[in-house]
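User: Structure tokens for this complex, please. No commentary.
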Amino acid sequence: MNAEWRWDFAIEILPQMLWATLNTILAAGIGYAIAAVVGLLFLLGQRTPIKIVNMINREIVEFIRSTPLLIQLFFVYFVLPQFGITLSAWVCGMITIGLHFGTYLSEVYRGALEGVPKTQWEACRALNFSTFYTYRKIVLPQAFPIAIPGMGNYLVGIFKDTPLLSTIGVAELFHAATAVGGYHYRYLEPYTIVGLIFLTLSIPAAMWIRKIEKNVNLAQGKIKKEQL
Amino acid sequence: MSYFAFLSEHGPTMLLGTITTIKVLVCSTILYVIISLIFGLMRLSKNPLIQGTATVYIEFFRGTSLLVQLFWFYYVLPFFGLTLEAFTAGVVAIGMNFGAYGAEIVRGGILAVPKGQWEGAFALNFTPAKRMRKIIIPQIFPIILPPAANLTVELLKATALVALVTVVDLTFEAKQINSITWLSAQCFGTALLIYYIISRFFLVPFLRWLEVLAARKVGKEVK
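Assistant:
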């Protein structure tokens, strides 16, 4: 084994890696979409006025949040077939990521809703708006900007956790790197390229989110222009 | 096979794995705390070289996936003549990754210390080192501990990844038992429960206790 970086090998495997990157992005996108919806469901469970539902909801969220995504993946992938439900690795991966990050997103939503000042609610009550109207016209438009940075962070978070999907055989970027590395018995280039691809995608994304966050804060008057 | 029969047969193996998981947790927590403090301070340095180094480090480790870093440490470093044991590679990768996140928390904590404290130390003609050591650092703990506690719970979950570089931890044992017995629900269910118990009944109360302790040290009371 030698430490030399071989450009010809790197260039040879690059198209394959870039192709697999599309799968990674797709996985992150679908996973995020599911997580966003699941997050809403957990939020609903948390805000229903029934105590027992709140309690169960909290325990489920707590449990999912404090156990590793990796074992959850294994659990869904290996256990569901025992009950006669055979899903492909892709579907299992998406469900697990959706559930796992849904719990995080529900916290983001909750924080955003609580970030809307109480007086707004009181004013709506005083104006005799219906609950639905209050949410749609007053609360949600104000809560959404607060949620954006958190939601963006978890998008990047999901993107960075997609390599875990390779453990159950989803053919994403990391899986491709391992396969290529095993085939040629050279791991230096594949894993380095994976790292570089992750960097080139997630750093601009993070910067973009930071910019949005700044704009949101500006629009809400939390910081002034001269503070930037 | 009933669940109890499963536990009596495979429980001891899983407990051994749990001990390794806790070892990884403790070692990488120590490493990440040290790295966060160093890089958090470096990030605030006025020297562009020091600050730049810290920024590059933080962006690099936060920008790539932990699993990729782990594999890089374990499979690629030997190409450069540096062969790490699986356990060491796992601890170093997790410690360095979470150190990058922690450094940002430390930076935020230092910046959140009230300005009057800085000015007071300045007025008393403290040297910058003494100002940091005696005035600012002792006050950052109540500020940084709540986010650091979250990060540490994340770290516990991340320790599961070391199983993929052949560290024989709880996840590895669960996978192993699964491949022998095919009792997936029992294996992975038990593993999930053990992680949950560690987090809920040991790690979180401990971190909470640290928070109360730190708040009391600077004369604040936690609800």
